[in-house]
Amino acid sequence: MSVQTPIIELRDITRHFGEGELIVPVLKGVDLTIHPGEFVAIMGPSGSGKSTLMNILGCLDVASAGQYLFSGRDVSKLANDDLARLRREAFGFVFQSYNLLPGISARENVEIPAIYAGLPAVERRVRAEQLLCGLGLENRLNNRPSQLSGGQQQRVSIARALMNGGQIILADEPTGALDSESSKDVMRLLVDLSRQGHTVILITHDADVANVADRQITIGDGLITSDTAGEANALPEDGAPAPAFSRNRGSSPWTDWQEAVKSAVRSLHTNLFRTALTLLGIVIGVASVITMLAIGEGAKKDVVDRISSMGSDLLLVRPGGPDQRGGRWSVTTLVPDDFKAINNIPGVLAAIPELTGSQVLRYGNRNHQAEINATSFQFPLARQWPLKEGTFFTADDEGEYASVAVLGETAAQSLFPDQSPLGEYLMVNNVLFQVIGVMAQRGASPWGQDQDDVVFVPYTTGSLRIFGQQHLRNITVAVADVENMDGVQDQVHSTLLQRHGLEDFQIRNMASLIDTVSETQNTLTWLLGSVAAISLLVGGVGVMNIMLVNVTERTREIGIRMATGARAWNILQQFLTEAWLVSAIGGLIGVVLGIVATQIVGAFGTPVYVTLLPMVLAFSCAFTTGLLFGFLPARKAANLDPVHALASE
Ligand code: ADP
Ligand code: MG
């Protein structure tokens, strides 16, 4: 025997399956030593444990007891990733059923072990092509396995076994499924490889095939029954070490990701319909979150805008005590002196009185019913309401009880449809008022009323000549600095309390009203949003479902990848990548669809408001759910046992 360290040394290896009563012993104490460069055939009847032995030799399976030394190292002490590395660097598997991945070309199949070894793409491609050409497959590089004959497929799988060097070729009945011609071809190849220095271990039940090898081992009922080692020249003539191929670099995280994305895209593409359905779940989830939040935000913005359009810097003083309900029109506790007093409070921009009532306006033979608002000259300032044309009345007009009027846009349009109202006289309650101005258009009030259907007159004139009384409907106080609202409110309160001696008025703060309303609307938004988020969750469950099916369906592929050297992490990464890719694509389409849906809803008149946050939120949610829900199936895949995975149909 040689003084060389044996490349493989088995000591009393046993392997049993099952537990307790149901225990099935398969290998019952195998001792075997194989030196580098040997060509060994293992024979035995079906069920004698040949494949089990082969799986242990190739580090796809672990013995129940006994010692396996690979180049002197105890394999049982190696972690899973180190076993994967050993498979990748030392072994090349050739199976009876070829075990090529169906979805990719011959060349890509051959490249797989090099992907896990981290060979750069170009070198990988060149080497795969060299190997395939060397095996006479130069015309079949881009064919799928299903387009190749059995013999051709087996040659592809031999090329794959050689991709990372294939120091030891493990061939489990490689000719079992082939016709005699192809069998001879394959055997010739194995002999060639052996001559080149590869260690070849061949399993067969055909004595003729076995005789090609230099050493024949027979196995029966879990034990080695005969071994020709030592009888003749067990070592190859030249005793050359296996051809070394640069293979120790291992893959880098960056190329790992690249490959994972590539293979994920391919797999998603292969199951296009299924991918589309999975996407649909995510798309609907994301789109509905965006649309719902846009509608919720739109409703909020609409209400808040309407209220704010009155001015967020306003205090509204109304007659009647805080506990007084109903009949407010008849409450007569606010008088013009009140608003004058409030005007003197520091921090008040303007306090204006308002006496209102509906009246019929007449111009020529036209009649129009509108609201009369008797107020002060500071109205445009307090309400931030500019004029369209003409002027507002002045303090002097008030002092002189002038009969002047300023029209709102609607009132102006009704009475003067095709002429300028400026300078014209209109009749209100049998009093002639001269029109001196028209207000800019204001639109609907928060309560849906047309604010432009109005006529403004000085409060002095209005109370004397239209309403016949001077009790105010309210006083609107514009505060100079919104920050100071509460302080001013307190002062207005104490001023009025002092003047009236009792609390026969109420003060409403528009800023806090807006806060309250937007709070309420926020609740609505969150309600809509969370209903939509549930559909996103359902989308995530869809991803998980599909991924689980995916893993089950591709168990064999996982086994093949593991046999060619994939680490558990590579498998985890591959399936996780599929999950997040689906989620990301679904999320993007969902965002686009959500924007489109929002625009459509908006076009039908519902107020909508699209902001960036819900989009980012919905997209990241989709992405995260995809990852979370994809993790379980991916881990399931990564934890598969290579032998079981390979055996699955
Ligand atoms: P061979 O390849 O020599 O035909 P195998 O090594 O495949 O035989 O199987 C040997 C015996 O071990 C068979 O009887 C088979 O039923 C049993 N066996 C193999 N794998 C398992 C397993 N995972 N669980 C239970 N029994 C198994
Ligand atoms: Mg077998």
Describe it for me?
The protein has 649 residues and is of the alpha/beta class. Helices cover 47% and strands 20% of the residues. The protein has 20 helices and 20 strands. It has helices at residues 50-57, 80-90, 106-117, 121-134, 150-162, 180-195, 207-211, 253-270, 272-310, 336-343, 379-382, 395-399, 409-415, 459-467, 485-500, 510-553, 555-563, 568-603, 612-638, 642-647, and strands at 8-17, 24-34, 39-43, 65-70, 73-74, 91-95, 168-172, 199-203, 215-220, 223-227, 314-319, 348-363, 366-375, 387-390, 404-407, 425-428, 431-439, 454-458, 474-479, 505-509. The strands form 3 sheets. The protein has a 6-stranded mixed beta sheet, sandwiched between helices. Helix 16 (510-553) crosses helix 18 (568-603) and helix 18 packs antiparallel against helix 19 (612-638). The chain is rod-shaped, with a radius of gyration of 44 Å. The protein starts with 7 loop residues before the first strand and ends with a helix. The model is unreliable at 232-248 (pLDDT under 50). The protein binds adenosine-5'-diphosphate and magnesium ion (MG). Magnesium ion binds next to helix 1.
List keywords for this structure.
binds magnesium ion, 6-stranded mixed barrel, binds adenosine-5'-diphosphate, 649 residues, 20 strands, alpha/beta
